[in-house]
Amino acid sequence: MLLSNSPADTGQLLAPSRRTRFPTPCPRADATPAATAQAEAAVLPGGLRAESLPRHVAVVMDGNARWARARGLPSAAGHEAGRRALEEMVRLSRAWGVGTLTAFAFSHENWSRPKVEVDFLMRLFERVIQDSVAEFLRCAVPLLFTSREGIRLRVIGDTSRLPVSLQKTAKEAEEATRDNSQLDLTLAISYSGRRDIVQACRKLAEKVQSKQLRPEDIDESLFADELETSPAGEFPYPDLLIRTSGELRLSNFLLWQSAYSELFFTDTLWPDFGEADYLEALVSFQSRDRRFGVRKS
Ligand code: IPE
Ligand code: MG
């Protein structure tokens, strides 16, 4: 499990762990193409077509506090339950072959929440990253025994605002998982799509000022290269963007990157989002006619 077995699963508030070292990655396993194909075929549920799965799914995980309130619980309990929903989505993405998953964990605007909630979330993120990395580097992956093992973890957003221990944990996690390629998992923490666009503009302006670039050289591709989601241009734009809890907006998530994303909204609150919901979103995605503005006939 990605995130379980932690004492904090009981809902207790914990001081941030001092554990910042991660195990070294496992050696890569080799499987025959036939074994790989068999494993992959075995895990794809009926109704889903392997050849048209989204390469990149982005998700706005919303509704944790409402989920908790409905049960007479504090919002922290909703966030803990939300963590388990993310764990399940990561597991399913990995099993079904969705290669990139980006989860909106905490927005720039969320900093204005009560301090006790923000502090809880920061500690939660640190635990999630630590526990996840330990899991991502484990050798045994019974369902998908392929030569491309493991999950690569990244954090995007204004990390300078995060507690120093979380910054350090995130950096070490990125370093420890950088060679993994089974699933690219990005957590957007202190993220703002507008800020991402502004920081990309600033970088381009600096390059123009230092004469590395001329203004007329700037095109969409160069611009996208400066976004936080574009390390070395290897990050596909989201094909499918899911938002839970009945809210019908993007809320400043991946604004540039979602220009042609298919949107899927569900009333399900994030902690309840499970296999059936994810499958529904993917089946809906596969029913869409993606024309990208082009007339096909
Ligand atoms: C999403 O759930 C988690 C974060 C934004 C950190 P919320 O905390 O926004 O829950 P609701 O939307 O108020 O129910
Ligand atoms: Mg919300």
Structure description:
Strands 3-4-2-1-5-6 form a six-stranded parallel β-sheet, with helices on both faces. The protein is 37% helix and 12% strand. The termini are far apart. The protein has helices at 33-43, 64-69, 75-96, 115-136, 164-176, 193-209, 220-225, 275-287; strands at residues 56-60, 100-107, 151-156, 183-191, 240-243, 262-265. It is built from eight helices and six strands. Helix 5 (164-176) links the parallel strand 3 and strand 4 (183-191). The model is unreliable at 1-39 and 139-148 (pLDDT under 50). It has 297 residues and is an alpha/beta fold. The protein binds 3-methylbut-3-enyl trihydrogen diphosphate and magnesium ion (MG).
The span between the termini is 48 Å
What is the H-and-E element order? Answer: HEHHEHEHEHHEEH
Number of helices: 8
Shape: globular
Taking strands numbered 1, 2, ... along the chain, how are they ordered across the largest sheet?
A: 3-4-2-1-5-6
Which spans have pLDDT < 50 for at least 5 consecutive residues? Answer: 1-39, 139-148
Range of strand content? 5-15%
Small molecules bound: 3-methylbut-3-enyl trihydrogen diphosphate, magnesium ion
The tally of strands reads: 6
The whole-angstrom Rg is 19 Å
GO molecular function, one term: ditrans,polycis-polyprenyl diphosphate synthase [(2E,6E)-farnesyl diphosphate specific] activity
Family: Belongs to the UPP synthase family.
EC number: 2.5.1.-
Region (Disordered): 1-22
